[in-house]
Design goal:
The chain has 16 helices and 5 strands. By secondary structure, the chain is mainly alpha-helical. It has one domain. The strands form 2 sheets. The protein has a 3-stranded mixed sheet with strand order 1-4-5. Helix 2 runs antiparallel to helix 3. The mean pLDDT is 93.
Length: 338
Amino acid sequence: MEAKTKEQHDWISVISRYNSPHTGKSIWQIINSLGPYILLWIAMYYSLGISYLLTLGLSFIAAGFLVRLFIIFHDCGHGSFFRSKKANRIVGTFLGSLVFTPYDYWHREHSIHHKTVGNLDKRGKGDVWTLTVEEYNQCTPGRKLLYRLYRHPVLLLGIGPFFLFVLWFRIPRKSMGKAGQRSVYVTNTIMLLYCLLLIFLLGWKAFLMIQIPVIYVATLAGVWLFYVQHQYEDVIWTRQEDWDYRRMALEGSSFLKFPRLLQWFSGNIGYHHIHHLSPMIPNYNLERCHRENVMFSGIKPVTFIPSMRTLSLRLWNEKAGRLISFRQFRKLLPSLSV
């Protein structure tokens, strides 16, 4: 017990050195993310008169900046971007409108995700729907079909993200609670105002030709990032009695080793194992925390190409302790029917 307490104290003392946000760095990150995003909107508007293919090309870059703005929004909700709670709320609410996400509702769900990630007994809040082999095997044919559709890349990444951020987050529901519902109304109001302003300045057709591809690519990239952070080959999931905060952060949250440019656009969120150890670390301190401490040297990174292959992993095999594909599941059927 004493050894475990000392180990816990050691890692807490390590990460606490990186928890404090730097106001100057935070403001500069807003400038170098929001500024180019606005300039790209202007460039895309003028590119419409040249070629829509050019506009679509620019939309991929703009989507990258929008993902980066989402990371700032995400940090604000954790209280890690500014020391001031009020500053985090104001900036987070404004950026939430740009990324089509209600501040209070999303962060309430996300905080539950941090407390229950990888816990097989507490699934369903702020995570990707994941069934165990036994659960899937016992499903009705209709529920199996629903699960297969949900986990199919076309729906999971091609349709789902756009539907979730553009439509689903616009609807207040009782399950959100009063604060969540209020954040939906606030976000929708801000969105309506700036959309009307842009339509007035650019025209509705130009607005839609720019906004739709930007938000589509950004939501796809964002959901894929979230997916691969906890759905990869060496991930661990456990039952409540074996669930451990530190172990789940280091072994149940991926270290995505991206090319430098993608790492910049994704706001260092690839260092997700560090983020789950301490959500209070601002995104610009995550890489430094990983690099400066030997305790993270043994973490196996997930690189870009292998991360794409994680989409074939659909079910958690409790006996083997790993995610498997539907093809692997079919091979297990004879043993499951015994």
